[in-house]
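Hello again, I could really use a second opinion on something today. I've been staring at a protein lately and its backbone has me curious. Can you walk me through what the C-alpha cells say about the fold? Take your time with it, there's no hurry, and the full record follows here:
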Amino acid sequence: MKLTRQAAAFFVTAAAIALLASCAMPPPAPPAPKPPIDLEAHRGGRALRPENTLSAFSNAVGIGVTTLELDIGLTADDVVVISHDMALNPNHTRDANGNFLRATGPTIRSLTLAQLQRYDVGLIDPASDYGKPFRKQLPFDGERIPTLASLFERMKALGADQVRFNIETKVDPTHPATTASPDEMVRALLIEIDKAGMAQRVTIQSFDWRTLNLVGTAAPQMPRAYLSSPATLRDPRWTAGLRLQDFGGSVPQLVKAAAAQSGGGGPVIWSPAFNDLTQAQVKEAHALGLGVLPWTVNERPDMNRLLDWGVDGLITDDPAVLRDLLGERNITLPPKTRVPPPPETRHA
C-alpha cells in the first residue's frame, strides 16, 4: 500500500512531535531513601583512631555516625572515665617515658584520675597481635584516657547535637574486685549523664545485665542494650540470674524476661555477637518488640547480610566503610559534623 504525500508527512510530523514530547518529559524521580539505621562507631572507630579517645570520637562525628559506642569504668576517686579494659592494656598504653607497658597494668578502679592521666593511650603497638588488624589507625601522641564529662563537652563544643552515645558499663560479675559494683557504676554514670543534660541521647549497654536492671529502675525511659556472647549466655551470673535453658534456648525470650525484671518503659535492645546471630532470631526479637544491634561488624559481606536480615543498626570499628555501604544501598545517612584539625600532635 502506497501512502499519499500528505499521509506520509502526517506520520513523520506525528513521530517528531512524540519524540519531542518524550525528550521534554522530566527524568524519573530517584527512589526515596530508605529509613536510617543506627550507624555506631565502636570505641569511636578504632580502625581509624586510638580507641575510646577524644580524637577517635571527634573523627567519627566528622565521618557522620548516628552513635558513639564507648565503655566506662570508675577510678579510685569515683570519676567516670572511658576505657574498654578494666586494667591498663599494654597493647596501647605507654608510661611517662613513652614505653609500652610490659604487662597488664593496674586496674582503672585502683587509680585516681590524676594517676591515670600519666599514661598515654594515643598509639597502638603495631607489633602486637592486637594492633595488626588496625593498620589504618592514625596515632596521636598525648592522648589520655578521657572522662565521660570531657566527651560530652567535646561534642557540645563541636556542635554534634544530633549524635547519640551507647555507653557500656564495664562490670565483671565473675571478678567483682576488679571494678566498681553495679550500684556504684550505675549511680555515678546516671549522675554524669544528668549533669550534662544528655539523658535523651544515651543508651546504656552491658554484658552484666544486673546493671541494666538497675538502669530500668532508676531511669525507666532510658534505652537499654542487653549485650550477649556465647560465654555470657551460659553463665547466669551475667544474665541477672536467668538461665537460657529455662526459655527454650531463645535468647530474645531471655532478654525480654531480663528487661521485665525491673520494668521501665524505654526501648529494649538485644546486642549479640554478629556471627552468633541468625535471621530467624532477628525476626523473633522484632516480634517481641526488641531492637537488634549486632557487634562488631567490620567486613562488607557481613554488613550486607545483616542489613538484608533487617537489623536495626550495626556496631563497627570502621564507620567509614559502613557509611559508604549504606550510601550504596540508598539508606538515609546521619549528618556529618564539621570538625577542625585535631590539636593533638601526630606521632612521628
Remarks:
- The first strand starts at residue 38 and ends at 41.
- The first helix runs from residue 5 to 24.
- The mean pLDDT is 92.
